[in-house]
Every structure is written in structure tokens, then in C-alpha cells.
Design brief:
With 391 residues, this protein is of the alpha/beta class. 47% of the residues lie in helices and 15% in strands. It has 17 helices and 13 strands. It is globular.
Length: 391
Amino acid sequence: MNQDSEALHAKPDIAQLLIVSGTRPEIIKLAPVYHALQQTHWARPIWLHTGQHGDMAAQMLDCFHIQPDHVLQRQGSSLLEFATGCRVQLESVLTDTSCEAVIVQGDTESAFQGALAGFYLKVPVVHVEAGLRTYNLHRPFPEEGLRQGRIASLHLAPTPRAQQALERENVAKEKIELTGNTVVDAQLWASQHHHIHRRMQGRGHILVTMHRRENWGPDVDHVCEAIAEIAREFPQMPVLFPVHLNPVVKEPVHRLLGGLPNVKLTEPLDYLAMQQALADAWLVLTDSGGLQEEAPTFKVPVLVLRDETERPEVLEAGCAALVGADRSRIVQSVRHLMHDDAAYRSMQASSNPFGDGTAAQRTEKRLHQMLRPDHAGLAQKAAERTRHVLA
């Protein structure tokens, strides 16, 4: 062996990387990163769950075959009490372990506290799904504020638009990597391991979800009134509405839609059931960011029950439209798609604008370059030599 080959095949130091999750969406989007890192020779992912979501999170972890290394004890009932307790426990874990990076995702309180703990202890912070913006600090609140952090050492942008947003904010280009969104990786993994595929005959159902704070109050009533009108006008079209457990959503939904024969109100669906519901859907009405990303995988058009979205890629790709909580606009949009097959087909995505299912692989590669630059360089040199010999 020559010197470079000996160095390449020598066992490198294993990098311990702390992955912080707290909510169901974080688990979905970090699970592919965890699995990608587990398959490497150079990294050991350590999964920490903050307890922000309880039973829902446990189901998600089980779905993706993840056993957390650390589960924090949730403190109090308010967001402030949770944040305070989470911060103290995170710092304790980071102090007791020799982690080379903290990996967080998105815009939750758990992500914010994980990033802050890493920053204070001078551990590099890696932000998965960085660069999402509405530029309205009150919509969504508090997510828009939480995700605009400047403390990350590496910003993993899910789309070119997110990358551009970071560059406009003067984040150094060498700190930004365009990866794609790991939500697509998660969907493909779940579909393969849990056999998700279309099972409903005909058009399928209209899938409705609504949970965001900015839609609480009269907007919930307006959306439900629109759905009721649609259900009466198209009695052969089933409507599936998994209802958020918060009483400010649950009460008006059941009051306004509970008596309609073609509207099925259910408890919130777990991840696999939601993926199956998407696979069987004809149309999605939602204020969820995650469903805006996931529906295109199954070529299902989306009507977004918001006035803005931090995921404008779905609008630009033509597979979603903003309708807000405007009753007339919602009804007219559904009616148009129901009667105009060409308009409907034009909203069926040819590919998912958020990724191709390899975001986790790109993330792992970029982390390797950041944390093990010498070894990554040797691997590249060896690959180039192999290509030269074969040529």
C-alpha cells in the first residue's frame, strides 16, 4: 500500500453527532439523516428526544426503527417551563458527551433549544431544512422567528429558493449546502418498509387538515363552512378530516361537519396512516407545511389554507394554490378542479419539487467534509485514481 492508501484505510476517529428531536415532523425529517450516518464508518449518531411531543413522537420513532439514546424529562405545562427544563438537560448531555456537532431540524422550540445549547458550548450547530421564510414574524408564530438563526455552522437548504434566502441574508456561501428535503427520503423509506401504495378506487377522497394558530377562531368556521358546502354539492366525494385535538379546532369542526354523511371526522392520524391517506387522496386542503411537501410525491394537488407559505416551491411548480380561509375561494377552487380535468392534471406534479430522495446522503457527505476534511480528501483522491486506472 502507498502512504495515501494506508491513511485512507486506517480506522478514523468516530465522530459523535447529537441529533435533537422533539416533535413528530422533526423525527420524520431527521430519521433519514440518522440512518445515513449509521451506515458510515466515521460517525456515530446519538439521538436525543426532548419530549416536546409524547405518544405521537414515540410512535414516530418506532415507525423509523429508532431507539433514542437520551429522552429528556418534560418540565411543566407551559412553553416557557418546557424550554427552561429542556435547556438545562440539553446542556447536561452535551457536557457529559464529546459530541462534535449538534444537528437540529426546522423551526420548533426543541430545535431552537438544541441549537442554543450547542452554540453556548461552542459545539458546531447543523441546521437541517434551513432558509425557509415568510418574512412575517407573526405568520407562522413563533416558527418564523425561531428558524432565522445565525448561530449555525452549517445551513442545509432543502431547495434553491431556501439557499437563495440564506445568501440574501449574507450567510457565507461555504456554510450553505443545497441538499433537498429529507421529507422525501422519509416517504420513500416508509413506502418501502411499510408498503404504502394507492388502495382506493376511482378519484379517491379529499383530505383536510387544519391546526395552525393563525387559523384559530373565525377562520376554522370559514373553512368548515366551505367544506360543508363542497360535501353537499358533491355527495359522492368522500372527505377525510383528521381533527386536531385542541378544543378550539375540534369543537367547530364537529359542530359544522359532524352530521354530513360523506365527511369522515377522525382522531389525528399517525405518520403511516397519513401517508396512506395521501396515497388515496384526490385533493388535499391543508395549512400544514409538511403536507405541502409530501403531497407532490403522490401527485396530489394541494389547496393551502393560508395567505402565505414558506414553501413557495409548490406554488411555482403549479402543484398547489393559496386559498386562505376564504369560504368562497375554497369552494370555487374545488369546484373548478372537479369540473376541469385539464386544470386538475396541470396540478399533478411530475416530480416532487422538494427533493429526489437522496437528501440524507448529501447531508452525510457534507458533514463528513466538514468534520473529517482530511479523510474526505483522501477518499476523493482514491476515487479519482481508480477512475484514472479504469479509463
